[in-house]
Amino acid sequence: MKREIICDRIVQAATELLAEGGREAVSTRAVCARSGVQSPTIYRIFHDKQGLLDAVARQGFERYLADKAGLPASADPVEDLRRGWDLHVGFGLANPALYTLVYGDVRTGRQSPAAALGAAALAERVRRVAAAGRLRVSEERAAHLMHSAGRGLTLTLIELPEERRDPALSALAREAAIAAVTTGAPAPAGAGEPVTAAVVALRAALPGLDALSAAERTLLTEWLDRLAAPAAPSV
C-alpha cells in the first residue's frame, strides 16, 4: 500500500507540473521537490522519465474515459460516434499539455498505453456502428480515419491561439469523417455500398456466432474481410 501511495504522489506531482509548464517542466528534480521523494524512488518505480510520463498520460486518459463511459449509449450508434468526437476534442482543448503528451510525440511502431486506451474506446463505438449495418468501410479503416481526423483537428486547434480558433471547424471535420465511413441509414443488401455495409455488419457479429467452429469462424472472417476491402482500381 505504501508503494501505491508514493506512486500516486509522484504521478500527481508530475501531472501538476505538466499542466503548469508542459513536458519540459516535468524534470526529475522538479518532481522530487513537488512530491517529496528522492530520485532513486522515481527510477525504481518508473524506470525512467518516459515511464513516468506514460503513467501520467495513462492516469489522465483513464479518468477521461471513465467519464466518457458513464454516458449511456443511445439508439443511434452514429450519433454516439459523433458525441465521442466532441468529447475527444473537448478533452484535448481542456487538457492541452496532457493531450500533446499522448498524441504529439509520435513514435514509429509504438503506441503509448494512453493512446491504446483511447483507440480501444473508439474501436468499440465503431463496432456498434458496424453491427447496425451503418459502415461503408471496414471497422479498422473507419477507426483509423476517425482517429487520425480527430487527433489532427485537435492538435491543430491546440496550436492556434484561442482567439483564432474557429468554433465551426471541429463540426465540419467531424461530419466529413463520419460521412466518409458511414451510410445514411440501414439498408437491405443490394448492390454496391449496401452490400459492403451488410458484410461489415456480419463481420462485427462473428464473435458471437457460437454455431460456427473456430476454423469456420476464421475462414468466414477471411472471406468477409476480402469482400469489405475496396476494389482495386481498373487499369
TrEMBL record:
Residues 27-46 bind DNA. The keyword Plastid does not apply. Transmembrane segments: none annotated. It holds the Pfam family TetR_N. InterPro entries: Homeodomain-like_sf, HTH-type_TetR-like_transc_reg, HTH_TetR. The keyword Transcription regulation applies. Keywords: DNA-binding, Transcription, Transcription regulation. GO terms for molecular function: DNA-binding transcription factor activity; transcription cis-regulatory region binding. Residues 4-64 form the HTH tetR-type domain. This is AcrR family transcriptional regulator. It comes from Streptomonospora nanhaiensis.
